[in-house]
Amino acid sequence: MSGVLALKFALELALLAAAAWWGAHTGGIALAVATPLVVALLWARFAAPRSVHRLDGGARVAFELALFALAAAGLATTGAPAEAASLLIAAVLVTVALERPRG
Q1: In angstroms, rounded to a whole number, what is the distance separating the alpha carbons of residues 100 and 83?
Q2: Cα–Cα distance, 37 to 9 (Å, whole number)
Q3: By C-alpha distance, which of 60, 81, 54, 68 is closest to 12?
Q4: pLDDT tens sequence across 3-58
Q5: Domains of the chain by residue range
Q6: Structure confidence at residue 53 (pLDDT)
Q7: Which of 24, 40, 73, 84 has the most crowded CB, counting CB atoms within 10 A?
Q8: Do 23 and 32 meet the contact criterion of CB atoms below 8 Å apart?
Q9: Is residue 58 a contact partner of residue 35, using CB atoms and an 8 Å limit?
Q10: Distance CA 5, CA 36 (A)
Q11: Residue 35 carries which DSSP code?
Q12: What is the pLDDT at residue 103?
């Protein structure tokens, strides 16, 4: 389990990097700084494990995957479709591994 959690953390960092990449290619340095900052604030507010406002269950999973999908779309629009697909597929697989019922 700890390996999957480490992979999820790496994906969260990749999410921020993808947001910065999109921002840099779309609007320059200001957007390259602002976009990952907004993503980090949204994640901290609604998805972070210790957040008071953390979404529950399916809503949190949908929120997280929506952020990854937006980041993947941003990568694809900047000419990195393989990286976009890799990010999104990895996010879905890690999410499934973490959210599946344990017995």
Answers
A1: 26
A2: 16
A3: 68
A4: 999 999 999 999 999 999 999 999 999 999 999 999 999 999 999 999 999 999 99
A5: 2-99
A6: 97
A7: 84
A8: yes
A9: no
A10: 21
A11: H
A12: 65
- What tokens does 23 get? 């921002």
State the residue for tokens 């017995």. Answer: 103
Name the nearest CA neighbour of 67 among 7, 14, 29, 31: 14
Question: What does residue 74 show for φ and ψ, rounded to 5 degrees?
Answer: -60, -45
**97 pLDDT higher than 90:** yes
Question: Do the Cβ atoms of 84 and 76 come closer than 8 Å?
Answer: yes
Token digits of residue 26: 């779309």
CB 88 within 8 A of CB 72: yes
Q: Which two tokens stand for residue 30?
A: 């200001």
Distance CA 103, CA 81 (A): 37
Tokens of 20: 């910065």
Among 1, 34, 5, smallest CA distance to 20 is for 34
Distance of CA 7 to the CA centre of its chain: 12
Confidence of residue 89 (pLDDT cuts 50, 70, 90): very high
